[in-house]
Design a protein that fits this description.
Layout (H helix, E strand, L loop, with lengths): L13 H4 L14 E7 L4 E5 L4 H5 L1 E8 L2 E8 L2 H4 L8 E6 L5 E8 L1 H17 L26 H12 L2 H4 L5 H11 L7 H10 L3 H5 L23 E5 L4 H13 L3 E10 L2 E16 L10 E7 L19 E4 L1 E3 L4 E5 L4 E11 L24 E8 L12 E3 L4 E9 L5 E12 L5 E13 L4 E3 L4 E3 L6 E9 L14 E9 L1 E3 L11 H11 L8 H7 L8 H11 L11 E3 L2
Parallel strand pairs: 16-23
Antiparallel strand pairs: 1-2, 1-3, 3-4, 4-5, 5-6, 6-9, 7-14, 8-9, 8-14, 9-10, 10-11, 12-13, 13-14, 15-17, 17-20, 17-21, 18-19, 18-22, 22-23, 24-25
Helix pairs in contact: 5-7, 5-8, 11-13
């Protein structure tokens, strides 16, 4: 989208992350070694720090200094890429010495891994400031020439991530700049969405423009480089805004899984919405002094930005490819995280889009019935709203419900193609318990219409009267399982997820008596004073009011609640066990 983001390059310095304490100087390779696993699975001990050629032959290693691990390096998803084309990138995981700041980075080539470990060794040896400035990353830039890339930050980010995950090379593109220029040649210079940008790359789809005519539109016949794959099976989008800590946790998980991640940002000028932007995300910093449920735990993100070093009227290949670090703050009014751009502007995290890396093991369409043409054939997939109350119109994407409570599934049909669908289609729904026993098995047909890129839900729901006892269940749904309807892809017609059914409790009801009373505070005090032999996990969950662990504040809050003082916690409210 329109470029409004200009982030100064921030350094990961001792000033930001805490002071560095020098240890005894290391002479030569003395005290430095690596505990490693080769790509063949052999465990080896390496004298000194591995060089780039050696790093490339390793699946993972821990860099050790004076027998203490200071850096963990892993090849991205080696279990998927073994024996197949490798994406050639590594992750690095380390804690800054004498601080509580932990760093995780992906997208590192072997020589950049060597550069990071060199900085770590230098810090230990001579107490030098630790900096990660000027690390070269995958980072195509705009030029704002007549080629028209002013609004194509979404395409630049998609190019970076397709390059990192190996898909661009699979399609014949040597660099992220080559791929970005193909996007520029194929699309109008308008705002877009990286998720649908992937749809164009894999399947030649122009779905975004069909949903919203003001979005960037692709020239017919372009894209569609890897049509064995349906892009919606490789990429998903998740909210960060309004999902706060949970959204950040999911983002970090996808980075650790080796996925490429694009952040969609809302830009605000003095608090007023002023546009949007997309950037590539390569890692994060967390502060382990805080619990992961605390917003202060999420300290920073590493980004590359197609606007930060744009080469106006120059070759984009001459632009520096620089990693940026931004410091996060939590915005409670939006339940999201933000970072400053300048004194008047800041960016709020809206959502993130991830893409799985290429490997020979990634599932693809195998049915001869599939047209593999999202432009001219519909492409159905299924999900479901799940709720325990259909009295209102608020449907829920719920996957955790109370035990022995009647619940309802409302099937949701999606069409990830440029051609709409209208007709009657068969649907199967099954629910099985942990032992594989069927507790719900329904098959029915329904008529519906769904346009390009849209979804629809049904007016009638599947009911499970009386609910289910506590436990974990597997829900599986399939649409058009008999291929009666011609589609672009069939391997995306089934969805499955785990349904958590849990008993309920009252928060603060430590002794599970059915009400919150003074004995509950006393039980917490006895537990903390080690007067009791311990408490089971459910007891601790009932007592855990103020934070991650049971503490004296939990007892104090209960006492205030009983005395009818105001408390900022839902004491006495119904909760479900983990």
């Amino acid at each position: 989208m329109k470029k409004l983001l200009c982030v100064l390059s921030l350094l990961l310095t001792a000033a930001m992350l805490g002071s560095m304490t020098a240890v005894a100087a290391v002479e030569g390779d003395g005290g430095i070694y690596a505990e490693a696993v080769t790509v063949d699975g052999d465990e080896v001990i390496l004298a000194g720090a591995p060089d780039p050629q050696m790093i490339s032959a390793l699946e993972s290693y821990d860099l050790m200094i004076e027998e203490e691990p200071v850096l963990t390096v892993e090849q991205q998803l080696p279990e998927l890429t073994a024996g197949a084309d490798n994406n050639g990138y590594f992750s690095a995981d380390f804690t800054i010495p004498d601080t509580t700041k932990q760093v995780f980075l992906v997208g590192l080539s072997a020589d950049k891994v060597e550069e990071i470990q060199g900085k770590i060794i230098e810090n230990y040896a001579v107490g030098a400031d630790f900096k990660l400035e000027d690390l070269s990353f995958i980072d195509t830039e705009k030029t704002r020439e007549a080629d028209g890339d002013d609004y194509l930050c979404w395409a630049a980010s998609a190019s970076n991530i397709l390059t990192y995950t190996g898909w661009a090379e699979k399609a014949g593109f040597e660099t992220t700049d080559d791929l970005f220029e193909d996007y520029i040649a194929s699309f109008t210079n308008k705002a877009g969405d990286p998720y649908y940008g992937f749809g164009w790359f894999f399947n030649g789809a122009n779905t975004a423009a069909l949903i919203n005519p003001s979005s960037a539109s692709a020239t017919a016949g372009t894209g569609g480089y890897l049509t064995d794959y349906a892009y919606d099976m490789l990429s998903k989008t998740s909210d960060v805004m309004t999902d706060g800590v949970n959204g950040m946790t999911q983002l970090q998980q996808k980075l650790r899984e080796g996925c490429g991640v694009i952040l969609s940002l809302d830009i605000r000028y003095q608090g007023t919405p002023a546009g949007g932007h997309a950037v590539s995300c390569w890692g994060y910093i967390v502060d382990t002094a805080y619990d992961s449920a605390d917003t202060d735990y999420y300290a920073g993100l590493f980004l590359t930005d197609s606007d930060s070093d744009e080469q106006r009227n120059k070759d984009r290949r001459e632009a520096p490819d620089i990693l940026k670090l931004v410091s996060l703050t939590y915005d409670s009014s939006l339940d999201s995280f933000s970072f400053d751009l300048d004194p008047n502007n800041y960016a709020t995290l809206d959502k993130f889009t991830y893409l799985v890396p290429y490997s020979g093991d990634v599932e693809k369409e195998a049915s001869a019935d599939a047209t593999k043409d999202k432009v001219n054939s519909p492409d159905l997939s299924i999900s479901a709203y799940l709720d325990t109350d259909l009295s209102g119109s608020a449907y829920q994407w719920q996957k955790k419900i109370e035990s022995n409570t009647t619940f309802y599934y409302t099937p949701v049909m999606m069409n990830a193609a440029d051609t709409g669908y209208s007709g009657s289609t068969g649907i199967n729904v099954t629910v099985t318990d942990a032992g594989g026993n069927s507790v719900l098995n329904r098959r029915f047909s329904s008529s519906f219409s769904v346009g390009p890129g849209y979804y629809t839900h049904f007016g009638t729901s599947l009911t499970k009267s009386g609910g289910l006892p506590e436990g974990d269940y597997t829900v599986m749904m399939t649409v058009n399982g008999d291929h009666a309807v011609t589609e672009a892809y069939y391997y995306n017609n089934t969805c499955s997820f785990t349904l958590q059914v849990r008993d309920s409790y009252l928060l603060g009801d430590t002794d599970n008596s059915g009400e919150v009373e003074i004995m509950d505070a006393t039980a917490i005090q006895r537990y903390l004073a080690d007067y009791d032999d311990g408490a089971d996990e459910k007891t601790l969950q009932r007592a855990k009011i103020t934070g991650a662990g049971v503490n004296i504040m939990d007892a104090t809050v209960i006492q205030r609640y009983i005395a009818r003082y105001s408390v900022n916690y839902p004491v006495g409210g119904k909760k479900l066990y983990d």
